[in-house]
Amino acid sequence: MKIWLGLALACMGTLAMALPSYDEVRTAHRPSETLVLARDGQLLQRVRTDASVRRGPWVALAEVSPALRTALVLSEDRAFWQHSGVDWRAVSAAAWANLWNQRTRGASTLTMQLAGLLDEDWRAGPGGRSIGQKLGQAVAAQRLERSWRKDQILEAYLNLVPLRGEIVGIEALARSLFGKAPHGLDAREAAITAALVRGPNAAPAVVARRACTVLKDSTGATDCAGLELLTLGALQRRSWFASEGIAPHLARRLLQEDGSGATSLRSSLDAGLQRFAQQQLAQHLRELRGRNVEDGALVVLDNASGEVLAWVGSSGALSRAAEVDGVLALRQPGSTLKPFLYAQAIAEGRLTAASLLEDAPTHIATPAGLYIPQNYDRRFKGWVSVRTALASSLNVPAVRTLVMVSPDAFARQLQALGLALAHGGDYYGTSLALGSAEVSLLALTNAYRALANGGHAGPVRLRPGPPPAPGPAVLDARAAFVVGDILADPLARAMTFGTDSVLATRGWAAVKTGTSKDMRDNWAVGWSERYTVGVWVGNAGGAAMWDVSGTSGAAPIWAALMQQLHRQAPSRAPRAPAGLEQAAVRFGDALEAPRREWFLPGTAQPLFALARPADDRAATPRILAPVDGSIVALDPDIPPAHQRLWLRAQGVDARWRMDGKPLGRGRELAWLPWPGRHQLQLVDGTGAVLDEVRIEVRGAAVKARGKAPPQP
Fold first, then answer.
1. Of 180, 285, 287, 283, which Cα lies nearest the Cα of 234?
2. Is 176 an active-site residue?
3. What is the residue range of the signal peptide feature (predicted)?
4. Which of 70, 123, 293, 368 is deepest in the core (most CB within 10 A)?
5. Per-residue pLDDT tens for 552-561?
6. Cα–Cα distance, 432 to 413 (Å, whole number)
7. CB 256 within 8 A of CB 500
8. Separation between Cα atoms, residue 442 and residue 451, nearest integer Å
9. Span 520-568, pLDDT tens digits
10. What is the DSSP letter of 562?
11. Burial class (CB in 10 A: 0-12, 13-18, 19+), 569
């Protein structure tokens, strides 16, 4: 019998030799959360990455409250600091039949329990521990005592012991049940914790009774009044949320990109700027709450490195969809695509900043019918320069420019800038000039960063690092500079935004606003010497805002961020790249004030004036527009009173008749279209028909109260 027992103990000793060292256990410890840090090491976000357990970071014994250390030793192993792994006095004091009773820890020391936590061979199964497991656990405990210090054993035990439900370790328990760090636990909380070690999932009343005993042993207290109520409250509390911090959406994105399993990740975010951005977004959205606005998002990029300095994906508590990341959500960008369009036209030599474009009613034939772009204020400005058209965000000139460039070529330019369109240019047609495609705020802001970097595109980076090499040139640097100069010109945008708008900044900055159709999305994107900032305001569910324009929605947040970024030193204007020339220009008929303008080589001219058309009064009277067979599609989102089809004719004394009834006189006439097929005639003073066309108007469901088209 002794031989068999000796062999068994020898085998147990061999297995026990496989126990890890203290350093190995501490190194292998993995919390159930990943910590996302700011670029300076500040904690930004804690994200749960292990759904099977709640376990905090390793806690040193010195960071555990003395009250808990005392309570645990008194409750579980009074002779802990004296024995060598097995409490032989406790063993000899108990009968052999009850020595290893699973219902009580009895002589099971903290060291023996730690051995069971380190090696599953010594853990109890469904029927409890076998005699062999108990013997092996005792041998393992003695080996642990020879290779580990006492404080290391107690520290490891506190970090590895299973507690209430899914909670493992003192860090997770203190955060979850008491909402504090382990070093802050008082005597009563320590007593409750020690009681949970004895019975992790016991009923609250049982835990409270055990805690009372521990409290009396550790402090000499004679009254446990209130302890049961405290225990019940603690066991019902869950203060340690799965994710907590100020950058939840960035953290989620960073974890997806990293995939290393690291317990902490350093991001490129600036903690102070992130907090400021959150506060500004929340404050402004509260001011807009009466206009049916509850969501917003913003991103700040470093121009040189592409590093993300701030990433706010939602308005948090103000939103009913706080988990939706507005930085990555696809939405219509409205007029914010116009800078890329004009840059392309300038680079191709189709336009200059001083070229004249007509802002007047126009009809553009599309497969679905005539496309009739409108301006935000429903007014047309006549002939304007490209500088005025872009800075004041006029829609009709942008559509005319897209016709020059072609939708397909413009779509390819946007793709090169990193704006991954779902379809080709032909799918969107001329509406692409007004932002009918869907893009993300992150991609749009990074595309603006290409404008800031002289047309060089580069990826966004979520981790800090050495400056990358310049990305490929996807835009002409000279055209990018001209567009930036236009978007930074307060006088050029005065026609739409006034001379003292919220877009004005203390230093140099170029900015463009945009609002998608039906006022669903509002944007402000722009750059300074060092930073590019993009802001989106709207509703995650797609509901329309009420009377929110580019300057009242996203622009105030953008301006506040720019002011914060340059609070110590104003932004300086960029230098003109080689190959640009500046020359004085005048405009015929005093269309605009004389000025000095930037030109690409070979495109400068001193005078920009309108060509005088030949007098057509002697020409044969005929209808110029609409053409015969035109299909006019009504927009149900635009109020009927604002929809007009312009009729044009040549000749003297044009008289119009629609479906046999007099309509009006003049070579140009605005007609309110109505669904159906119509016969349009041009007649003379006697009623004789000089010319006629047949058109069809589609769109019977016209809203009584319409919405606005894309806005600046």
1. 180
2. no
3. 1-18
4. 293
5. 899 999 999 9
6. 12
7. no
8. 15
9. 999 999 999 999 999 999 999 999 999 887 788 999 999 999 999 999 9
10. H
11. exposed
Pairing of strands 54-55, 167-168: parallel
Q: Give me the mean pLDDT over the 322-344 stretch.
A: 96
Residue 35 exposure: Cα atoms within 13 Å on the Cβ side = 13
Distance from the first to the final alpha carbon of the chain: 94
Sign, CA torsion 450/454/455/458: negative
Distance CA 437, CA 413 (A): 13
Q: Which two tokens stand for residue 466?
A: 């050495």
Q: How far apart are alpha carbons 224 and 226 in whole angstroms?
A: 6
Residue-wise DSSP of 146-202? HHS-HHHHHHHHHHH-B-STTEESHHHHIIIIISS-GGG--HHHHHHHHHHHH-TT-
Pairwise CA distance, residues 249 & 597, whole Å: 43
Hey, is 95 helix, strand or coil? coil
Centroid of chain to Cα 187: 44
Helix (H) or strand (E) holding 387: helix 386-391
Average predicted confidence (pLDDT) for the chain: 87
Rounded to 10°, the helix 131-147/150-160 angle is 130
* Bridging pattern class, strands 607-608 and 581-587: parallel
Contacts of 276 (CB under 8 A, 6+ apart): 310, 561, 564
Q: Rounded CA gap, 463 and 346, in Å?
A: 36
- Comparing CA positions, the residue from 351, 490, 324, 346 lying closest to residue 413 is 346
Q: How confident is the model at residue 370 (pLDDT cuts 50, 70, 90)?
A: low
The helix (H) or strand (E) run that includes residue 45 is strand 43-48
Burial, 125: exposed, middle or buried (Cβ in 10 Å; 0-12, 13-18, 19+)?
exposed
Provide the pLDDT for residue 356: 96
The one catalytic residue among 76, 171, 294, 307: 76
| Catalytic residue chosen out of the listed positions 314, 335, 436, 552 | 335
Relative orientation angle of helices 395-405 and 407-416, to the nearest 10 degrees: 90
Contact 97, 131 (CB under 8 A): no
Cα separation, 374 vs 295, whole angstroms: 27
Q: Decide: helix, strand or coil at residue 322.
A: coil
Instruction: Give pLDDT tens digits for 148-174.
Output: 999 999 999 999 999 998 999 999 999
What are the tens digits of pLDDT across the range 341-356? 999 999 999 999 999 9
Helix (H, G, I), strand (E, B) or coil at 237: coil
Active site residue 335: yes
Nearest one of 25, 46, 105 to 73, comparing CA atoms: 105
* pLDDT of res. 372: 61
